[in-house]
Design brief:
CATH topology of the largest domain: Rossmann fold
GO molecular function: glycosyltransferase activity
InterPro entries: Glyco_trans_1 (IPR001296), Glyco_trans_4_5 (IPR041693)
Mean pLDDT: 80
Strand order of the largest sheet: 3-2-1-4-5-6-8
Domain Glycosyl transferase family: 365-442
Low-confidence stretches: 1-14, 300-352, 467-477
Strand content: 5-15%
Largest sheet: 7 strands, parallel
Keywords: Glycosyltransferase, Transferase
Shape: globular
Number of helices: 19
Pfam families: Glyco_trans_4_5, Glycos_transf_1
Number of domains: 2
Distance between the termini: 55 Å
CATH superfamily of the largest domain: Glycogen Phosphorylase B
């Protein structure tokens, strides 16, 4: 579907968002557009998370510890991405458990400001003196990204003792983020990481730079929140006699069937989803190339047409390549009017197809450069979706090879094996279903809300405990 714009864009500011919108106005390569599915979800599930502001276990250790505490949470931005959303959910949980929360937002980029207001999370407009004074009065400051280094550095310069009240939850795993934060890592009370692999990587970098941390870092992986667990049919605090896990599993099945029908999917179709922002580091193009390899090895009627759409010129700008990915959905569709995004008809006698959904599931594909943790991966597993993941980053700590998913090497070198894994998933629906079941079990054992907050309360206890050793006692790694 392509709708012509009613008005032209003013590009005087020349900002990236304006450039992107201008590109959209000139682009006519959109295919089918499906969703949003919010109204359908509300109707089938008869429940909406917007009706709730928190799911605190009032009798738990976390609630007991944070009640009446004052905390400042530092957001590096407000985009609809992992770190800001995780920090927003943490703030919501703290509020519902009786803590006083103030948010410091370093960049208002993104669309979460209205959601923070809806959840009654107080945001300080000032990012300097007033935020420093507020932090000085807090029991603890939690910074939610390596990008918070600038604020942390300025705060400690303003209040030298302030480092002893900062817990820094670092959610990135690229060297560039280490380099921009390394000058202040040793000045905070504690570092928190999402995975063992991420922690080891950062500690190795610290050793290379001769950085001595004040305490042993902690591992606090992200988790499936109660709202998502509830819809997935996993026992949680939101269950009631009328909304038991068993009843929610049945409603989820009805919702899945309704959504697949609206998307034009048959029962025999396999949907492969890549859910992330569209950029080179997330690997959407590599996924498309892998599908093309699968077609070459098992020729299909649409193969030549698909191959043509994958031929992206190297001299195109990053913005053009980004929108070329979005544009692939129209060019790659066959003549079927119900085609949703990329459609490849495989073995037409069986009337089976692979459907590739890019952008915004039979299988969830992770083709990034090695995720730090991969919360979306855990959420997919909660719904019984098998994972096709890279064998780098935190994904290997979440997914078990040949049990809850299949691995392939990172980067373009992994395309061939991903193509093989896609073919295996397509031709073995029973194995696909079993992997989904096993992944769901893993989530229930390791990645629910109670697991994350159980670890987090241990960290908060250590951070708020009065220091016994001299501040000159440093731990080197």
């Amino acid at each position: 579907m392509h709708v012509k714009p009613k008005a032209t864009m003013n590009m005087e500011n020349g900002d990236a968002e304006g450039q992107e919108q201008a590109f959209l106005l000139k682009n006519s390569t959109y295919g089918s557009i499906v969703g949003p599915f919010g109204p359908l979800e509300d109707r089938v599930l008869e429940w909406s998370p917007e009706k709730r502001f928190g799911t605190c276990d009032s009798k738990g250790d976390f609630a007991h510890f944070v009640r009446s505490r004052r905390l400042v949470l530092v957001f590096h931005e407000l985009s609809m991405t992992g770190a800001p959303i995780s920090m927003m959910e943490l703030a919501t949980e703290l509020l519902s458990c009786g803590a006083t929360i103030t948010a410091v937002v370093l960049s208002k980029k993104g669309g979460l400001m209205s959601e923070l207001a809806r959840r009654r999370i107080k945001v300080i407009e000032d990012r300097a003196d007033f935020s420093f004074k507020t932090a000085m009065k807090a029991d603890l400051v939690i910074a939610g990204s390596a990008v918070c280094a600038s604020w942390t550095d300025q705060y400690i310069a303003h209040f030298p003792a302030g480092g002893s009240q900062i817990a820094w939850w670092i959610m990135e795993n690229r060297r560039e983020y280490f380099d921009r934060s390394k000058h202040v890592l040793h000045r905070v009370k504690m570092l928190m990481f999402l995975s063992e692999l991420q922690s080891k990587q950062w500690l190795n970098w610290c050793q290379e730079e001769n950085i001595k941390l004040r305490s042993q870092p902690s591992i606090v992986p992200l988790a499936v929140n109660d709202e998502l667990a509830f819809v997935a049919g996993i026992p949680c605090s939101l269950n009631t006699p009328l909304a038991s896990p068993e009843k929610m599993i049945e409603k989820r099945r009805l919702l899945r069937d309704a959504v697949r029908k609206e998307m034009g999917l048959k029962d025999s179709d396999m949907l492969v989803m890549s859910l992330s922002s569209i950029n080179a580091g997330k690997g959407q193009l590599l996924l498309l190339e892998s599908v093309n390899l699968m077609i070459d090895q098992d020729p299909l009627g649409t193969g030549s047409q698909v191959k043509k759409t994958l031929d992206i010129r190297l001299d195109e700008s990053a913005l053009a390549r980004k929108h070329h990915l979005r544009g692939l959905v129209k060019k790659s569709c066959n003549a079927d009017a119900s085609c949703t995004n990329l459609v490849f008809d495989s073995r037409r006698k069986q009337e089976q197809a692979v459907k590739i959904l890019i952008g915004s599931v039979g299988s969830k594909s992770n083709k990034g450069v090695g995720e730090t943790f991969g919360r979306v991966t855990v959420e997919a597993m909660a719904f019984g979706v098998p994972v096709l993941g890279t064998d780098g980053g935190g994904t290997k700590e979440i997914v078990e090879q040949n049990v809850s998913g299949l691995f392939h090497p990172m980067g373009r070198a992994g395309n061939w094996l991903l193509a093989e894994n896609l073919r295996y998933m397509l031709k073995n629906p029973t194995a696909r279903k079993q992997m989904g079941k096993d992944g769901r079990k893993q989530v229930g054992k390791r990645y629910l809300k109670r697991h994350m907050y159980g670890r987090l309360v241990e960290v908060l206890t250590r951070c708020m405990r009065r220091q016994v050793a001299s501040s000159r006692s440093l731990i080197g790694f």
